[in-house]
Amino acid sequence: MTKTKIAIIGIGDISGIYLDNVTKLFKQIEIVGVCDLIPERAQRAKEKYKIPKIYDTMHDAFADPDVKIVLNLTRPYEHFEVTKAALEAGKHVYSEKPLGASKKEGEQLVALAKAKGLCIGGAPDTFLGASIQTCRKLIDDGFIGEPVGFNAAMICRGHESWHPDPAFYYQFGGGPMLDMGPYYITALVNLLGRVKAVTGITRTSFKERVITSQPFRGQTIDVEVPTHITGIMELENGAIGNLTTTFDVIYDEQAHFEIYGSEGTLIVPDPNFFGNSVYLLRKETGEYKEMPLLFDYKDNSRGLGLADMAAALKNDRPIRADMEQTFHVLDIMTAFQRSSDSQAREEITSPYTRRKAMEKAEVLGIIPD
User: pLDDT value at position 256?
Assistant: First the structure.
């Protein structure tokens, strides 16, 4: 089997699961080199995962003729510059979420990729896992009838109490919508289709945050972004619903993500995960029933979208986590702020068509053509 070779830019907290899964699970891709601004991180990854190369700079990675796809795992506000430079060097890119820190950044990246004849894939890829794919099949097969509405919320008190370096969550490109919103909105559009309008309102509840985690315990973060965002989303299929994301609230569990239909209600599990339980309520049962998960990838399978991208490029088929999707999600997320600023309903102009659902794999880790 000929493997698609990738280079990773950014060996931070999220890189560990990618390194594990690319080297141990996904059999169609191969890491040929890594790069990080802190050389020791790259060296540790090289030694632990037996990676052939360390690049001194990201531009060295982009110049490597062996590299087909650049995996961008940098911090959110760095995504734009890294992806742009890789595209300009002629490389396909798979980026952690979000695609960019603003709609303008996303527009520029999509335009550049199209001009260069290149592709951008992007996280999150949890929608390709067993839970969301099972939910999609239940909806598509009519188990909830006609979709009517939904309600979703990501509620927590922020990251400064546990994350080792939480400042970027409160800077440009951060906040609960750009951080966690991609999971919810990506799942939503894969389940119900394109969003056509948003009416939102935002606030910044606390102007400063005190870090209580190590190693920066006691330091103060100036908050630059909204930290409580809520609003109404209108979908092209007629369904309407609410989404809230917040870093400002004390809460003892994760709120439900519910989709309401004319014949039933579906509880979608936390879309930050691949394989949690799915529950369906229909009038025949009068109570929620746990549904069997009908698809692969129940465990933490980050990198699944990257593996699908590699298979798609090789076989000239659509990428499931492609730039149309990641830009549509970015357009929606940033629309909450645009709507709040203008105190008006915000039309979503970006196109979006659901890609093909996942198929059962004969061998886990090999994405069917």
Answer: 79
